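Reviewer comment 2.1 asked that we show a complete input and output for one of the modelled complexes. We chose the HDD case, as it is the one discussed in the main text.
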Amino acid sequence: MAKKKVTPIAKLNAKQENLAPHTEEGVDQFLTTNQGLRINDNQNSLKAGERGATLLEDFILREKITHFDHERIPERIVHARGEAAHGFFQVYESMSKYTKAGFLQDPGKQTPVFVRFSTVAGSRGSTDLARDVRGFAVKFYTEEGNYDLVGNNMPVFFIQDAMKFPDFIHAVKPEPHNEIPQAASAHDTFWDFVSIAPESMHMIMWAMSDRAIPRSLRMMEGFGVHTFRFINAAGKSSFVKFHWKPLLGVHSVAWDEAQKISGKDPDFHRRDLWNAIESGAYPEWELGVQIVAEKDEHKFPFDLLDPTKLIPEEVVPVMRIGKMVLNRNPDNFFAETEQVAFHPGHIVPGIDFTNDPLLQGRLFSYTDTQLSRLGSPNFHEIPINRPIAPVHNNQRDGHMRQTINRGETAYEPNTISNGCPYQAKMKEGGFTSYEERIDAKKIRGRSSSFFDHFSQATLFYNSQSEVERTHIVNALRFELGKVTRTDIRERMVGILTQIDKSLALRVATGLGLPVPSKPETPINHIRPADGEVRRYEPKAVKQQVINSPALSMSNTVKNTVKSRQIAFLTADGVAGKEVAKMKADLLAAGAQVQLIAPHLGKIKTAEGDHLEVDQSFLGAASVLFDAVYVPGGKTSADALVKEPAALHFINEAYKHCKAIAVTGDGLKVLKATYLETEGNDPGLLINKSSKDFINAIAQHRFWEREAIDTIPA
Ligand code: HDD
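Response of the prediction step:
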């Protein structure tokens, strides 16, 4: 498909214009009460005498305190911690062959979007770097109404049926007796649940992989997870899986690094997204679709309705059909990011659901949760949630109603108002549900086509590079190491043997456990329902591919350093020319540079100029950067050799496999660290060109170093 260049627009898009009347700014204005009364004294309450009691009459104090007392709303039960941005989506070519969705027809049209990223398990104030799934929720403000693609950064889910969602979430959230641990799955209840829910094993592989600790929200994929339907103008339906492909590639941090970032800057992802947009490095993703003809529904060794399965890209290629650009930060976190309400049930003509039992449950849950979270069925009137398409119906009243509906009638059909507002025909954009034939008994049960719980977990593990596998092993050792009950650990080791025996053995070794010759059958822990035969026993089905390179992050895009953060370690006497050249070349390649020095303010270069310091060693940390450069300059190098924080900075950056460059006397500093300077490390550049350094940074990490790790950082 031809890729067209889309350039961000500076003017407000349709949604931003729609938000504009709701914005407020106090510049050059008087301070007022909520009733518009100008306030003369905002420092003191009204009292009976200077030293007397405060008077009940003080309506200004009462209004202020009352509003403050009610400032908080319930946080989301899941995905509480999040950050969002505005932008637009533009399709490359009309998708009319597959769907009549208006926003997927015209390559000349930009559809406004608001995208919220999130972690799942933690509270609103929890760290960004938790090992967790990331939410990736996109609201398209289309001319046919809002379309929400409420996905995650992993293409599958832990459970197959919405019936299990509250149980699963209760298991992963902090334990109910002591509210520990925050934003972490490394505890007994989570692993107890998954150790007897084999359907979760594919997603467990993803969650234990580095996908769960992204370098940036801008560097992760997004997935619609479920199979949806596209419907074209002729009424023909195809199945579709949605993907978001980041143009910067898919990159992660190291687990040790993630834990340190959580202390140094718990807002790391939030800040990174905000700064990237403020600096004009707009995050971009291509929307990808995997399309399956209706007649091919049963051609896969898994059920398309099963949300614990993906369609390997090597079996059905991902067609990249358009681009999304995030180019504006919200004006107000609460009004926009917190109050935005997503719902997989917000669809437009041309898109429809399938019977995926997880999706079906979600279709209930999202409106329901907004009622308690946002407090009223009028949450669609909150500015960020308002569609740009006109809204006319007979829904009325309720808490905080904003719309002033005129006219005598609030019912349809009617004669008094000439039948208005009236139903829309399909050709007028009226939505009709896809007419799917259903002829079945009503049962509470699960299809046997959902019972292959391990084959795709194995496929994922097989598809990982050696380094990625080691990271999965270490993640499992870490997580299960935090589990206090040995029987849960043992059960997990047993269940891992079903995925890969060597994986189970490596995890077991770390836990000091034997690998059971015959793993316990998890199903033994579920009391069968009345009349139920044991139907949940996992069964393996041969997959179409045994390896899917698309699943490995090691095969991702590695051709850009755009928006990467590079630390320059400097002190008085630094070689100013070297700094200037390296900085200019890095900036030209799109990277960002910060000067770190023993003190804030300015440092003097060897040439006698002054350079502004961005951070002192006290505030800076290697884990907040992608690469390190130590320029020459004798006095500077001598000072850094005596600066333990500088040496630690380099050791730690090396341990986390980052590119490190030194020029001139910078080598002296390197020699004072634990690093091996004589070796053949492609990520360690001694007196090499800025071009070489840029190429090394673009590789993201030199993970091979982990195998020979001798750095005690
Ligand atoms: Fe969900 C929020 C994604 C299964 C019930 N979900 C929520 C958000 C994302 C997802 C990204 C945050 C939206 C935002 O930023 O405001 N959820 C998923 C994905 C799922 C999934 C990709 C599986 C494929 N969710 C799921 C199930 C249920 C829910 C099975 C319930 C039956 N999800 C909710 C919720 C939330 C939510 C309780 C909490 C806050 C909200 O909806 O607005 O309704």
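The radius of gyration is 28 Å. We note this here for comparison with the apo prediction described in Section 3.2.
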